Amino acid sequence: MRLALATVLALLVVTSPAAAQDDYEPVVGGGSFNAAPLMESGRYRDTLLPTEYLYYAFRLEPGQRLHVTANADMPIQDFQQLGLSDITANLHSPTRSRYISSPEYDVRGNFRVEGDPPLDITGPTVTAEEDTRNRGPWLGPGVAYLAFYAIYTGAGGDPPRAEVPFHFEVEIQGTAQSTPTPSPSPTPSPTATATPEPVISEEDGVEPAVAAGFGVGGLLVGVIGGILLRRRRT
Amino acid sequence: MRVLLFVAVALFVLPATAYGQATDTRNRALIVLDSSKSMNKDAGNGGTRLDAAKQAVSEVVDRLPAGAPVGLRIYGSKVAETSREEACKDTELTIPVGPLDKEQLTGAVNALNGKGRTPIGNSLLATPDDLGSAEGRRSVILVSDGGDNCAPPDPCEAAREVARQGLELTISVVGLQVSERARRQLRCIASAGGGSYSDVQDAGDLGDELAALLARAYRAYEPSGTEVEGTTAKGDGPNLSAGLFQDTITVGDQRWYTLEVPQGRRVLASVTAIPPYESGGGSTFRTELLATDGGDVAFEQGLLSGGRTATELGRVETHSVRTSGATDGGQYLVGVFLDSGNLEDVPVALELGIQFLAEGEEVGLTREAGELATPTPTPTAADQPTQTLTVEDDSGPPGWLILVGVAIAGALIGLAAAFILGRRAAT
After folding, report:
1. Whether B272 contacts chain A with CB within 8 A
2. By CB distance 3.0 to 4.6 Å, which of A48, A51, B118, B361 could disulfide with A183?
3. Chain B CB contacts of A141 below 8 Å
């Protein structure tokens, strides 16, 4: 019995790290807003260096909001030995300004490692109302950002260049109320930058449904034409 | 008929969207690959572990940025494990670190046969020389299916020694179907080398893991956009169109930029200040938007902290100033100020995002969802105007021609069908 128990425990010990890791998809955050990969709800893992930022982008429609949980994957002694006090997370609006916490939601928080309380933050629900403010976060639809930053409190010297593995889960909560009209000229945008992906404009392209319609129409014309020709011959 | 077939195929082959990741090709990566005898073991899917590594590498090379500096060190591929002394010296820099040559890299890996022992410690000790001392981050990515069996040197101690040699070198490890004992050793290497450790069980996972590690190796942390130089005199600043720009500012200084806003558009300026990670102290950072008549439209300000002193709010500060609605157009000014404070007197990077919003236009980046952890070649930083591509660019005939083609194809098929069916009915 003891042997069986020991075997089961050994198996658990052997398999648990891999199993836990398998649940999280490896991703690579961007070092700036502009380099942030556009992602969807999911469980992810990445690494970051002390004092450096990682950004991830998420599209939000009216009625939706971001919910994020996270924790780091290293022993607390190693975490502190790097001179880190915490990893902080902030949610940024499409204008890149940080959202501001309110009684209904908390858009900023810290986390360290398993065993400590995990990060658990939630952004504001995106509104369809027109923005008329002249500064601050944008509460309307668009691409919002999640940013992680490892707070370095080490004494003197440059922060160590050591990767801190962490995992996080992002859930886009709520049902999109409506799809905002695509901009006529895709955001003057990210453009002029070193990194953004090319934006494919389909303004001169052909919608598959339209093409299919033409195809079916052509087919009908062909069939009718064929029948008529056949009848004339007979 | 061929043309019609092309048209039909073209309708269904939509252009793939590439997703960008900032890439710094000053950074270098070295893959250290296990080719010991144990790599000949069945990986559980019909092939060996070495087959899994070959497949993973061949998949990864297409996901690497063009010209990315990468090298390959292989151990255990030449000397049979029976000769311990010689087998433990069997580690070789097969491809020196240099711009990616996909064929060379895949060719070298595909030619491997699992043969010898696992001299991880000796291999790690060679990596600083392999990667050189030029500016940029250096990443070692070790892929192994087991622990070192040649110690001394102890591989974990070797990793520590390597890490001590330079602040800009990290060692990450991928364990391929490893035992718990080997995992402990490989984790120790990653921890001592300032890198990460991950377990993989098959070629697909290994490919994803390698792609992510290499993307991290080349990850850039610098602002991007067209380089501009704001002026200290209001009204003399460079004229910015919509898009992203970058500049720098120092403590006690200000930067002015001019915006020529089209009529009916709403002005939106996002300004991000990024002090160097090694800086300390803090100063007040302010952004102003002034209207055509010089009147204030909006301003924001906050504390900007250096990397050594930043707390929960981090060391990056972003302001967003905008008109409250569409404007009559004209000249607007954006001013950025970094007040005297105790922020160390070092250049602070600025990233400016300018938008002239038409009615109904979406704010911020417009991107489609796409693949994860996929590094792709990116354009160089400066002087890159809009990267908006149109489908018609080099990708086929215009839309109306496609529709006419499809309609004609449909008609021809219909005619043919009618005739064939008619004949059958007649007979």
Report:
1. yes
2. B361
3. 362
Report which DSSP code applies to A158.
P
- Whether B324 contacts chain A with CB within 8 A: yes
Give chain B as a 3 state SS string. CHHHHHHHHHHHCCCCCCCCCCECCCCEEEEEEECEHHHHCECCCCCEHHHHHHHHHHHHHCCCCCCCEEEEEEECCCCCCCCHHHHCCCEEEEEEEEECCHHHHHHHHHCCCCCECCCHHHHHHHHHHHHCCCCCCEEEEEEECCCCCCCCCCHHHHHHHHHHHCCCEEEEEEEECCCHHHHHHHHHHHHHCEEEEEEECCHHHHHHHHHHHHHHHCECCCCCCEECCCECCCCCCCEECCEEEEEEECCCEEEEEEEEECCCCEEEEEEEEECCCCCCCEEEEEEEEECCCCCEEEEEEEEEECCCCCCCCCCCEEEEEECCCCCCCEEEEEEEEECCCCCCCCCEEEEEEEEEECCCCCECCCCCCCCCCCCCCCCCCCCCCCCEEECCCCCCCCHHHHHHHHHHHHHHHHHHHHHHHHHHHHC
Is A92 in contact with A54 (CB distance < 8 Å)? no
Q: Which fold has domain B226-375?
A: Jelly Rolls (2.60.120)
Q: Do B406 and A215 touch (CB under 8 A)?
A: yes
Which ranges in chain B are annotated with CATH 3.40.50.410? 12-218
Q: Check residues B49 and B10 and name the one with the higher pLDDT.
A: B49
The reply to whether B13 touches chain A by the CB within 8 Å rule is: no
Q: Which of B18, B212, B221 sits opposite A31 (nearest CB)?
A: B221
Contact A162 B194 (CB under 8 A): yes
- Please tell me whether the peptide bond between B397 and the residue prior to it is cis, using omega within 30 degrees of 0: no
Supply the angle between the helices A208-233 and B399-426 in degrees, to the nearest 10.
40
Taking contacts as CB-CB distances below 8 angstroms, the residues of chain B near A221 are 407, 410-411, 414
* B12 contact A CB<8A: yes
Asked if B324 contacts A134 with a C-beta cutoff of 8 angstroms, the reply is yes
pLDDT, tens digit, 9 for 90 and up, residues A70-87: 999 988 988 998 889 999
pLDDT score, position B127: 94
pTM metric for this prediction? 0.71
- Picking from B201, B223, B367, the nearest residue to A57 by CB comes out as B367
Domain(s) labelled CATH 2.60.120.380 in chain B stretch across: 226-375
pLDDT 10s digits, A182-223:
444 333 333 323 333 333 333 334 455 666 676 677 778 777
Lowest mean pLDDT among A18-27, A102-111, B107-116, B159-168: A18-27
Q: Which residue has the higher pLDDT, A177 or B393?
A: A177
Asked whether the beta carbons of residue B315 and residue A51 sit closer than 8 angstroms, the reply is: yes
Partners of B197 on chain A (C-beta within 8 Å) are 165
Average pLDDT on B370-387 reads 33
Chain B residues in contact with A198 by the CB 8 A cut-off are: 17-18, 387-389
Overall average pLDDT of the A8-23 stretch: 44
CATH number 3.40.50.410 given to B12-218: yes
